[in-house]
UniProtKB/TrEMBL annotation:
Recorded family membership: Belongs to the AHA1 family.
Organism of provenance: Agrococcus baldri
Alphabetized Pfam families for the sequence: AHSA1
Annotated protein name in UniProt: Activator of HSP90 ATPase
Domain Activator of Hsp90 ATPase homologue 1/2-like C-terminal residue range list: 14-137
Length: 139
C-alpha cells in the first residue's frame, strides 16, 4: 500500500506554552480533543515511552499510541493506531506535531504519515479536530 502524508497547519491565538499544554496535558486535551463526542475518555502520559488513548466507547472509535519523541515547546512524535469498536488496528502510523512562534500566536503543524486506505478520512478528521484546538485556546 502506498504511503500518504497528511499535513495541516493551524495558527492558534495563544503563546507556544499554552499550545504545548493543550497537546500534552490530559486535562487540556480533554477541553478540545473530541470534546463534543459523547463518552470520550482522554488518557495521556506525554513523555518518551509514555502512552495515550483517546476513545469514545459510546461512538465506537478512538486512537492510541506511544510518544516517541517529546521536545518541549517544539515537537511531539507519536505512533497512531486507530480503534474501531474496541479493536486496535494492526497498522501503525506516525504523527508529528510541531509548534512555532507566529507573532502573538503559535503555528501548530500536524504531519500524519499513513499507509491507510482511509487517508482522506484522516485528513477530514484532523481538520475537524484542529479547529477545536483553536477555539479552546482563543482569548
Amino acid at each position: 500500500m502506498t504511503e500518504t502524508t497528511i499535513e495541516l497547519a493551524q495558527r492558534v491565538p495563544a503563546p507556544r506554552e499554552r499550545a504545548w499544554a493543550a497537546w500534552t496535558e490530559q486535562s487540556q486535551l480533554a477541553r478540545w480533543w473530541w470534546h463534543r463526542v459523547p463518552g470520550t475518555v482522554i488518557e495521556a502520559d506525554a513523555r518518551v515511552g509514555g502512552g495515550y488513548r483517546f476513545e469514545s466507547v459510546d461512538a465506537g472509535f478512538g486512537v492510541t499510541g506511544e510518544y516517541l519523541e517529546v521536545v518541549p515547546m517544539e515537537r511531539l512524535v507519536l505512533t497512531w493506531r486507530w480503534i474501531d469498536d474496541g479493536v486496535v488496528a494492526e497498522a501503525v502510523d506516525t504523527v508529528t506535531v510541531r509548534f512555532a512562534e507566529d507573532g502573538d500566536g503559535t503555528l501548530v503543524t500536524v504531519e500524519h504519515v499513513t499507509h491507510a486506505a482511509g487517508a482522506a478520512d484522516y485528513e477530514l478528521g484532523w481538520r475537524d479536530t484542529i479547529v477545536h484546538l483553536d477555539a479552546a485556546l482563543a482569548p
